Amino acid sequence: MQAYWLSLLLSAGAAVVGMWWCLRCISQARHLLDTPTSKIRSAAQGYVEFYGVITARPDDAMVGPLTGKPCVWWRFRIEEHVQEDNKRSWRSLESGVSDALLALSDGTGECLINPKGAQVRTTTREVWSGNQRHPRLPRKNGMLGFLSIGKHYRYTEERLQVGQPLYAIGDFRSSGGGRQGLDLAAQQGAVIREWKSDFSGLLQRFDSDNNGQLDEQEWSRVRLAAQLEAEDRHRLESLRPVQHHMAKPREAQPFVLSTTGEDELARGYYWQAAGGAALCLVGALSLAWQLGLQH
């Protein structure tokens, strides 16, 4: 009886997970297809998509950790070939992903992209095997080299490189260039909170009677000074050149960086949705069959 209930639970779980995955993939595909392509210079603030080319940044000096090839973003995995119970498989040993900012240009402007949390799809992918855990280490010689024979490792490295086309969809924000309006009350409050974090310094500036407290008149002076400081900061921010940034959206919208276009990405999501629908169908049929056996 215990095995029967476990089987029912697994079938119901497969149906639910398959349905959830199907709906999620369809939703992500629709986000990609329904969001119009924008130009960086004129893009509205919020959720947008861009097509452009990856450009070099002045401080870029990045290389792939396994190949040593120049790039602006990388992801790697090192696996070991193991045998357990007469079964051979690959066991993951190490993995990692870079988080440096990327630069995307579309001819109208440049946008810096924070890739943290993004689904990154790149056509530059290398997979190879070797006898050392880290392929860039010098090869072992003598007896140690002999002992390393038979230890097999598989390396995978993916990269984004300067000059590659890039499709990007995510949360877009601009700063500087006089683009941002001044919310005086919010900025004033932020300045006051900043000053209050160093309360002794605040007292030194505004406690005119040196009693260790700020009375109502002294707080009025604090608020006035904070207002003037907020206005000065906004004025200086407006003089800075405009900068565009893209990052992961706060809401459950897809954040995707890809060297292929949205049509191919959407097609992939639809295939995943079909797989989820198939899993849901198999789970539902198995559940119905098992329940039918009890009647």
Automatic annotation (TrEMBL):
How would you classify this enzyme at the top EC level?
A: transferase
Principal location listed in the UniProt entry: membrane
- GO biological processes: protein ubiquitination
Q: Specify the protein's topology with respect to the membrane.
A: Multi-pass membrane protein
Supply one GO CC term from the record. membrane
Q: Which GO terms describe its molecular function?
A: ligase activity; ubiquitin protein ligase activity; zinc ion binding
Q: Report TM segments.
A: 269-289
- The highest taxon in the source lineage is Bacteria
**E.C. number, please?**
2.3.2.27
* Keywords, ordered alphabetically: Ligase, Membrane, Metal-binding, Transferase, Transmembrane, Transmembrane helix, Ubl conjugation pathway, Zinc, Zinc-finger
Name the chemical reaction catalysed here: S-ubiquitinyl-[E2 ubiquitin-conjugating enzyme]-L-cysteine + [acceptor protein]-L-lysine = [E2 ubiquitin-conjugating enzyme]-L-cysteine + N(6)-ubiquitinyl-[acceptor protein]-L-lysine
Protein's name in the database = RING-type E3 ubiquitin transferase
